[in-house]
Amino acid sequence: MRRPFTPPWRADARFAALGFAVSLLVILVIGIIGVRVAPVHGHWTPPVWWPLSPFARWDSAWYYRIAVYGYFRPAAYVFFPLYPLVVHTLHAVTRLPFVTAGIVSSWAADLAAIVLLARLWREQAGEVLMRRALVLLLAYPSAFFLVTMYAESLYLLLSVGAYLLLRKGRWGFAAALIALASVERANGILLVLPLLAFAWESSARRMDALFWRRALWCLLPVAALGTYLAFSYVKVGNPLEFVAQQATWYRHFTGGGFALGYGLIHAFYNQGLPLSAVDLGMPIVFLLALAFDRGILSLGDKLYVFFGVLSTLVDPSIPNGFVLMSATRLIMPYFPVFLTFAARLRENQWRWAIGLSGAFQVFLWISYAHWFFAG
Q: Which of 81, 185, 205, 233 is deepest in the core (most CB within 10 A)?
């Protein structure tokens, strides 16, 4: 008897959902065991049911306070408003506690992003590479941030959604998602690069009227970012307060080469031994993947990843030992590069990469749950 035909997108969605569920279950179990076995001493006690408390550390406190009180101090302007607004709205609608609302919203956004990635990558590279790329993303050292009270999962969802819409020629809707991403993360405006690249490649005569009509949609994300800058100006008198307040985290704008040079010197400095080495290495790995891409990535992919990684390298944090502080986490949402990894790694290399990356994610997750800095 023949099995009923299952559309590929349903099988892909099931695979993506299963990968998300397994990843989340492993992270949840390890987090619960970790906080029960060893005492946790942090700077902030999240008001949430204790099994969920490992999902709210470090920057989660900032998102929580912004969701509850608004922009309560100048340093808060570093955190863009969309994610706290989502948390606040979910709390208002469901009456879930703020931290629970933040964690649930991250879980939902991560699940949706993974499912959409499965569809995007199947269309771009086929089933085998799609599945490998998804597993590589889920095993990435900082992937646990996608299910914590951080903005990473929402940004990933918006960027993947924008990509899918661009591939289907839905320019206005794609621009709307890019506009949301521009007020969700400081460098979300970089998503206009894929928009311009898709417009260029789909235009028969390149710089013709059709290209310019599509390119004009870039004004929507620019206007969204401008709205946040105007809000910052009205509230504190500086539209670039989010740049000025980077010094709170010891970040200072400089050249990419300068940051990498200090990274080489300080990779094994003080308490940053394992994490600084990874924060130094992963941006280099991402850039090498672009250089040795075998035609998997589009022009928009390459521009987005390159300038995204570069924006991370030009803002190092030298005084505290973590020179490229959080670089591994910050470059994670530049998802096209995972497809290159999947294409370049051979069978045995791919399995080793999954094992090593997953093991380091477990180490960083346990560190994060116990309030040690992990990105």
A: 185
Contact 154, 197 (CB under 8 A): no
How far apart are alpha carbons 148 and 59 in whole angstroms?
10
pTM above 0.85, yes or no: yes
DSSP 2: P
Place of tokens 């035609």: 295
Residue 255 confidence class, pLDDT cut points 50, 70, 90: low
DSSP 47: S
Using pLDDT thresholds of 50, 70 and 90, give the confidence band for residue 208: confident
129 vs 169: CA distance, rounded Å: 24
- Which tens digit of pLDDT belongs to each residue from 303-340? 999 999 988 877 666 555 566 778 899 999 999 999 99
Give, in order, the Cα–Cα distances in Å from 350 to each of 60, 102, 329, 336, 354.
Answer: 33, 33, 21, 17, 6
Measure the CA–CA gap between 342 and 364, rounded to whole angstroms: 23
Helix-, strand-, coil-residue percentages of the chain, each rounded to 5: 75, 0, 25
CA–CA distances in Å: residue 256 to residues 263, 277, 290, 313, 332: 10, 17, 17, 5, 18
The string over 75-101, giving b where at least 16 C-beta atoms fall within 10 Å of a residue's C-beta and e elsewhere, is bbbbbbbbbbebbbebbeeeebbbbbb
Structure tokens at 198: 């898709």
Q: Is the dihedral of CA 268, 270, 272, 276 positive or negative?
A: negative
Nearest in space to 331 (alpha carbons), one of 291, 374, 284: 284
* Contact call for residues 143 and 361 (beta carbons, < 8 A): yes
DSSP labels, 181-211: HHTTSGGGGGGHHHHHHHHHHT-TTSSSHHH
- Collapse the DSSP code of 225 into the 3-class scheme (helix H, G, I; strand E, B; otherwise coil) and give the result: helix
Across 199-223, average pLDDT:
83
